TrEMBL record:
GO terms, molecular function: protein domain specific binding
A GO CC annotation given for this chain: endomembrane system
Residue span(s) of domain AH: 50-253
InterPro entries reported in the protein's UniProt record: AH/BAR_dom_sf, AH_dom, Islet_autoAg_Ica1/Ica1-like
UniProt cross-references to SUPFAM superfamilies, sorted A to Z: BAR/IMD domain-like
Organism name: Rattus norvegicus (Rat)
Phylogenetic lineage: Eukaryota, Metazoa, Chordata, Craniata, Vertebrata
Entry protein name: Islet cell autoantigen 1, isoform CRA_d
């Protein structure tokens, strides 16, 4: 028995050191075959696949972390742009209200000035949100380019070793189907392949453990990163809302006792009959009598520009499909005209 064990160990060492061209070609052949099976999606041995179920679960978690961190980085950049745009628009609105308030000497002017100052203050405070967001984006990018990249390299090495291991299993399966224990050469060939399987499995198990440990550490690191950075952003956001709400509440208190104003928003522009037509039977569009009072107007909805158009009832009326002719008005285009000057029709 001792001689048999010594003989087997000697064979194993010799097979492990076998780096001949034929052995390398056979090994590469089965590795390529395994890679082809994986690429084409052919069914593999269910027992071999089941043995790597825990590893596949870790890989799914890793790919999820990789994908969500990339999406988070893009969302932070877009969020910063939206904050800058909103702050700019809010500041412009505040300046507009202040300028209009200076021109209006009534109480409404004072209200517009106070509201404009509050909006300008709010726009400046809103920009403070970019500081924790910039820091957050830097931390996420560092996490992606270091932690995730390092884990990705380990995953690639593990996948290469898994391909070598499964290719060696295919090789051993092929050799075992033609194995005759009575033939020494076939037994020697089988032992050589068996040694190759052991070496491939040893390397694969080591990298498999490394991948599982790194993915677990990666998930914990991401949780710590998000907890720390989001807490900082949340604190800054709460301070912003506290300052803004305090300013708006002070303005609301100062406006108590002022005469309320009613504002009406025009949501839809519709055609209404002029006062001189209301109550009468409306004639055909092409037979509407041209009025004696005409305004020089321009259209703001289309490139059409007319020097004389129908404009009864004052400036800013909507008239459907108007065209001025020598005998009357023809309706050919939908236009909304702004009156510039008033004159009699010649």
């Amino acid at each position: 028995m001792s001689g048999h064990k010594c003989y087997s160990w000697e064979l194993q060492d010799r097979f492990a050191q076998d780096k001949s061209v034929v052995n390398k070609m056979q090994q590469k052949y089965w590795e390529t075959k395994q890679a082809f099976i994986k690429a084409t999606g052919k069914k593999e041995d269910e027992h071999v696949v089941a043995s790597d179920a825990d590893l596949d679960a870790k890989l799914e978690l890793f790919h999820s972390i990789q994908r969500t961190c990339l999406d988070l980085s893009k969302a932070i950049v877009l969020y910063q742009k939206r904050i800058c745009f909103l702050s700019q628009e809010e500041n412009e609105l505040g300046k507009f209200l202040r300028s209009q308030g200076f021109q209006d000497k009534t109480r409404a002017g004072k209200m517009m000035q106070a509201t404009g100052k509050a909006l300008c203050f709010s726009s400046q405070q809103r920009l403070a949100l970019r500081n924790p967001l910039c820091r957050f984006h830097q931390e996420v990018e560092t996490f992606r380019h270091r932690a995730i990249s390092d884990t990705w390299l380990t995953v690639n090495r593990m996948e290469q070793c898994r391909t070598e291991y499964r290719g060696a299993l295919l090789w051993m399966k092929d050799v075992s189907q033609e194995l005759d224990p009575d033939l020494y050469k076939q037994m020697e060939k089988f032992r050589k392949v068996q040694t190759q399987v052991r070496l491939a499995k040893k390397n694969f198990d080591k990298l498999k453990m490394d991948v599982c440990q790194k993915v677990d550490l990666l998930g914990a690191s991401r949780c710590n990163l998000l907890s720390h950075m989001l807490a900082t952003y949340q604190t800054t956001l709460l301070h912003f809302w506290e300052k803004t709400s305090h300013t708006m509440a002070a303005i609301h208190e100062s406006f108590k006792g002022y005469q309320p104003y009613e504002f009406t928003t025009l949501k839809d522009i519709t055609y209404t009959s002029p006062p001189w037509i209301q109550g009468r039977q409306q004639p055909q569009r092409s037979q509407v009598a041209f009025p004696w009072i005409v305004y020089s107007s321009i259209c703001i909805n289309c490139p059409l520009s007319l020097s004389r158009v129908l404009a009864v009832g004052g400036a800013g009326h909507f008239y459907r499909d108007i065209r001025v002719s020598a005998t009357g008005v023809q309706f050919v285009r939908r236009c909304f005209f702004i009156t510039t000057t008033k004159k009699n029709f010649p």
